[in-house]
Write a structure and sequence with these properties.
heterodimer, A: mainly alpha, MetI-like fold, 8 helices, about 80% helix, about 0% strand, B: mainly alpha, globular, cell membrane (chain B), Ectoine/hydroxyectoine ABC transporter permease subunit EhuD (chain B), Ectoine_EhuD (chain B), transmembrane (chain B)
Amino acid sequence: MELGEIVSVLLQGAVVTIQIVAMALPLAALMAFVFGLIRLYAPAPFKQLAIVYIEFFRGTSALIQLYWIYFVLPFFGVSIDALTAGVLALGLNIGAYGTEVVRGAIQAVPKGQYEASVALNFSASQRLVYIILPQALVNMIPPFGNLSIELVKATSLVSLITIADLTFKAKSLADMTLQVGEIFGVVLVLYFAIAQCLSLFFRYLEKRLSRGLGRGGVN
Amino acid sequence: MIELTWDWAFVWQVLPMILSAAKVTLLATLLGSLLAVTVGLIFALLRRGPSKLIRIVVYWLMEFIRSTPLLIQIFFLYYVMPEFGISMSPLVTGVIALGVHYGAYLSEVFRSGIEGVDKGQWEASRALNLTTLDTYKDIILPQAIRPMIPATGNYIIAMFKETPQLSAITLLEMLQVAKIIGSENFRYLEPFTLVGVLYLCFSLLAAYSIHHIERRFPKEGFNLR
């Protein structure tokens, strides 16, 4: 097979990989914010629930979670297709790591900011929305960037539940043509390119969000 | 749809098989982490070395290893290396893949640990006419190790949690055994849940012992010999 043909088949897989990332990333961000805030501010039973979620998804491996959702849930009557299972497992897994990012970033906002907003008679929700989160958000961007790259890498696992992503295409193409060197070489480069694009995007976002916050040199 | 209930008899039947597969998982993690520490230290020292070219090459190599999936690296080693005449068993392939992948992560930990040692220590060693090797071995590393322990431990736990990916090259570790049991009996609930619980137990235990090890280390450093 020509190298051009190999690349064009693999690019189809790359599109699926990017689609999965695009679906799992918002889910992960949502989980991270919801459970991060619950972990910090909610009353007792909810807080414990958040801790169980976080510890469970960080303490076991992503592949086991994926298999559990894909193979075990159908027995409970929850019929789930491979794509949904993949997005769900990855989003929940990366989201659990994200909760710690949210928590750390909020706790890193200087205490004087809380005190000043209390002194100015802000309500708890106003305090969070107008004072704390805008500053914490900037702190979250670099670790979220790293997590998004972890997510891209983790998407390769969905090939094991038969989703035709980049890894799946590569594996089946390699089994068919035996041109393993070219195929896996191209795949590595494609994943690297996707990861670098995400990394550039998050660096841009960080610069953009830190405007007007009076940090890091020129504003 | 099958009526699904937790079957303890089935659990006791499959537990021994999964536990004996746990030995393979732990062996891969142990050998992988030894290799990762070695690779990480070499990368970290190369990135502090005198040659600018080597520093740049090592930086991009690490960036590449860290931002491509472990699964693809495993496939690459397992399927492409034989073309160069190097055939390896699944276990050896897995250990090398885990070791190099996490070595790239650990090198950053080691680098920041080494750079965290006070500059005066370097100047004093220079003044005492120690060679670079002796400075690293007797002065810098003994002081750098304690602050590195938590991050290193976290990466080793992360590596442990990636071992199920080795099932993709037919290594009979816990998840692969669970999957085989599941497909033979058409019962996935107990095997997969057991494996998940075992991973959770091992990770929590490991996190606790890392915390313990860190506290046991003397703050002022220690003799490497």
